[in-house]
Amino acid sequence: MSDSPRHPGGHQHPEDPVPRPEAVPPGEPAGGYEPPPEPPPLPPRRPRKTTVEPVEEEPAVAAERFRRTTPARRKTIPVRRARGHWRLLAGTLTYVMVVGGMADYVEPETRAIAHLVFWLLIGVAFLISVGRERRHDWAPGPRWPWLAGAFGGALAVEGLILAVGSPTIIVGSLILVGLALFVLMLVG
């Protein structure tokens, strides 16, 4: 409950209610308030006169010799050469795992076709690499990893098939892929 004379609180109605509209004299607003006075009109504005003053030459400062002569937007960022042959290595290992794992389940002619397709893909990748070297004016990279990947992959497949067989190659491939995924997850 409130002790305020304006708001007695509780369930009773205030004794002096707000005057009813019929009790308000004509011309006065109802509710006990007055509308705000109208603001005076603003004087008309004249547009400002602008003048252009000549710019004076500033004396040269010490940092003037470090100013760019070519805007940054016109400079091209040179393309960097990829480091190492990790794509070639990953492709060769994948080829050894797939063809070595399917060796006992397909005909030898199919394996020979797989070797030819692999050599063709290595040759296309080599030509793309040489084209990028010429286009970006890079020094020629070593050529032996391409031959080692092409012939080493085919020899590794045939040697593993003769030494251990397809089921062992499949199990070894799964272990190798699991280790690679574990390392990739550690790196992030």
What is the topological layout?
Blueprint: H1 86-102, H2 108-135, H3 144-163, H4 166-187
Helix pairs in contact: 1-3, 1-4, 2-3
Distance between the termini: 66 Å
Helix/strand order, N-terminal first: HHHH
The biggest beta sheet reads: none
Q: For the CA atoms, what is the radius of gyration?
A: 44 Å
Question: For the residues shown, what is the average pLDDT?
Answer: 82
Structural class: mainly alpha
The proportion of strand residues reads: under 5%
Q: Could you give the count of β-strands?
A: 0
Total of helices: 4
Question: What does the model show?
Answer:
There is one protein chain. This protein has 188 residues and is mostly helical. It has a domain at 86-187. The chain has helices at 86-102, 108-135, 144-163, 166-187. The longest helix is centred in the middle third of the chain and has 28 residues, at 108-135. It is elongated. The mean pLDDT is 82.
